[in-house]
Structure of Muconolactone Delta-isomerase:
Amino acid sequence: MLYLVRMDVNIPHDLPQEQAQEIKAREKAYSQDLQRDGRWKHIWRVAGEYANYSVFDVESNDELHGLLQALPLFPYMKISVTPLAQHPSAIAQN
Ligand SMILES: O=C(O)CC1=CCC(=O)O1
């Protein structure tokens, strides 16, 4: 199942810089592991915002929730999820 996910990041200004950098490094490693195993299919920066649009390919809502909840930046993100279905006019099956 495919999901379009928007993540808006909002790290509090009073979080120490070193701690913020450490969380971002863990976020990157976690994200890249999921990209390598195929469950995090796309990640795109929203131009001009500290936000991304991502596409996940997972088995269920529960699996997606588990992956999102484990994001190191999860406490500092607003996340919205849109389930995707096939469009009848699409020439490629995703
Ligand atoms: O910078 C972001 O958009 C948040 C994020 C998600 C995965 C990652 O590496 O950074």
